[in-house]
Amino acid sequence: xxxRIGTIxxxxxxxxxxxxxxxxxxAHSGIVLARQGLPFHDRPVAVISLxxxxxxxxxxxxxxxxxxxxxxxxxxxxxxxxxxxx
Length: 86
Description:
By secondary structure, the chain is of the alpha+beta class. About 25% of the residues lie in helices and about 40% in strands. The protein contains two helices and five strands; from the N terminus they run βαββαββ. The chain has helices spanning about 20-25, 55-65, and strands at about 1-10, 30-40, 45-55, 70-80, 85. The longest helix has 12 residues, at about 55-65.
């Protein structure tokens, strides 16, 4: 199968969703290369940025599961070029 590199941006409008978000990300840790969080203490939002590498279905599964959590929005952007599995 072919892999792609991409990003997933996760916006939490309620920090109470953080535990669920962390569980989903941990369950997909095999495709997560890097993670950065920005809590915005003075605003009602938190941002998590993920760098991912995996098959399109794997990346879409992670993004989709995150987006199904209440008060969470997730969007994925993938490279157009494909990476051959080694």
